[in-house]
Specification:
The chain has 406 residues and is α/β, with parallel strands linked by helices. It folds into 3 domains: 130 residues, Rossmann fold, CATH 3.40.50; 113 residues, no CATH class; 108 residues, no CATH class. The protein is built from 21 helices and 9 strands. It has a 7-stranded mixed sheet. Strands 3-4 form a two-stranded antiparallel sheet.
């Protein structure tokens, strides 16, 4: 493939900055990303994604897999196929575990015990009897390898959602809050948005101005716990001090969405799902979708490749939907142009691309050449509409691009 024109665009947009420090931090982040679980669950709102994509049963979808919730949530819409991509071995092992569980478990309650409660000792028996025999050797080795003298699979008997880089970061935030006399889980008892806002004003508004939090957030290493690479850290920092950015995001999470059905709030403030009323849970865990997912799960395939690598091996006009999460925040201009060359080539007419960004800016419009984007329409109004609906509240922008030209 001739990338000369793409490279010219990249050279215009990329300037050498802080290279030594950036390379060291990128190396450390890559090692962490390669060796440990980052996201026990995906932090993009699936209801927003599904509404934006308008998934049809003829659609072929490619998506960053991450923790796998998004693949299964989209699968409830019964598309033609979903290809899940990730470089993180632990994410692929988690996706394989979920796919195997849907294939082999006949009872929704057992499935919910495993991935909803994720803290029952009987989950280990479920793994041994029903899941282990059908996992690949690599996946079995991953789940049965030991971390601090315990097998990884034991996480599902000790609240799986408190583990991983993100789980550890949230746990640290809870610890610091308790040191300040704040019980974050109390917000989940609120009956109205007004009560949620009152909790924020009385407990969290000044929390982000604490000295210890400011010190911790000055280092990009601290943000590795959120799965934020150095490049994304710099984008966030460009919007102000990190404690101010996080305060704005927590304000949205706490004050803009009813906690009774917002499972992101339950994970952030309670470190669990709403297992009693089962309103604040992702749709793939809802009983009404269990049989559909069992029937459809064969449509998901997993690939340990970057999205650009994977797309480069596909024929023209072969995909309908592209779910990029925030992966583009990690890319430079050359990588963005290479990716969008492949998206444009493999997309059918009417193709849809959705992605999030750390700040509000559409980095694709700013970095990718018009010779690639000339057939793609970007609606700021639609994108802002979906961003405001995103209950995870963790990103600065949601973006939808649609292929309108030929």
């Amino acid at each position: 493939m001739n990338y000369s024109k793409i490279a010219q665009t990249a050279l215009i947009n990329d300037k050498p900055e802080w290279k030594f420090k950036k390379n060291i931090l990128n190396f450390l982040f890559a090692k962490m990303f390669d060796r440990m679980l980052i996201y026990p669950q995906v932090w993009e709102d699936p209801e927003v994604d599904i509404e934006a994509l308008q998934i049809r049963n003829t659609d072929d979808i490619v998506a960053i897999a991450s923790g796998g919730c998004n693949l299964l949530n989209m699968l409830t819409e019964q598309p033609n196929s979903i290809r899940g991509l990730d470089l993180c071995r632990s994410h692929l092992a988690l996706n394989s575990l979920k796919i195997t569980a849907l294939s082999k478990l006949e009872n929704h309650d057992v499935f919910f015990d495993f991935f909803g409660f994720a803290n029952h000792s009987k989950n280990l028996n479920t793994y041994e009897k029903f899941l282990k025999p059908d996992l690949s050797e690599d996946d079995r080795l991953f789940w049965e390898s030991r971390v601090l003298f315990r097998k990884r699979i034991s996480m599902f008997s000790r609240n799986f959602y408190s583990f991983g880089a993100l789980g550890n970061f949230i746990g640290a935030a809870h610890f610091i809050a308790r040191m300040s006399g704040i019980n974050l889980a109390e917000v989940l008892n609120a009956k109205t948005l007004e009560e949620q806002k009152m909790f924020y004003e009385e407990n969290l508004k000044n929390f982000f101005s604490s000295t210890i939090l400011k010190i911790l957030l000055r280092s990009p290493l601290a943000l590795f716990g959120l799965g934020i690479p150095p490049s994304q850290f710099r984008k966030l920092k460009g919007k102000g001090e990190l404690h101010q950015v996080l305060q704005e995001r927590v304000n949205r999470l706490c004050c803009n969405y009813d906690v009774s059905d917002n499972y992101f709030a339950w994970q952030a403030f309670g470190r669990k799902y709403d297992t009693e009323h089962r309103k604040a849970i992702p749709r793939y865990l809802e009983r009404r979708h269990f049989n559909i997912l069992k029937k459809e799960v064969r449509k998901i395939t997993l690939h340990q490749k970057t999205i650009t690598q994977y797309l480069s091996g596909l024929p023209n006009n072969s995909l309908d939907c592209f779910v990029l999460l925030d992966a583009q925040d990690w890319m430079n201009s050359l990588q963005l142009n290479q990716l969008w060359y492949e998206i444009d080539r493999t997309s059918r007419q009417g193709g849809r691309v959705i992605f999030r960004t750390a700040d509000s800016d559409n980095l694709v419009k700013r970095n990718v050449g018009e010779f690639i984007l000339s057939k793609w329409e970007y609606s700021i109004e639609k994108s802002n509409y979906f961003h405001k609906k995103d209950r995870s509240a963790i990103y600065g922008g949601f973006h939808l691009m649609e292929k309108t030209g030929t």
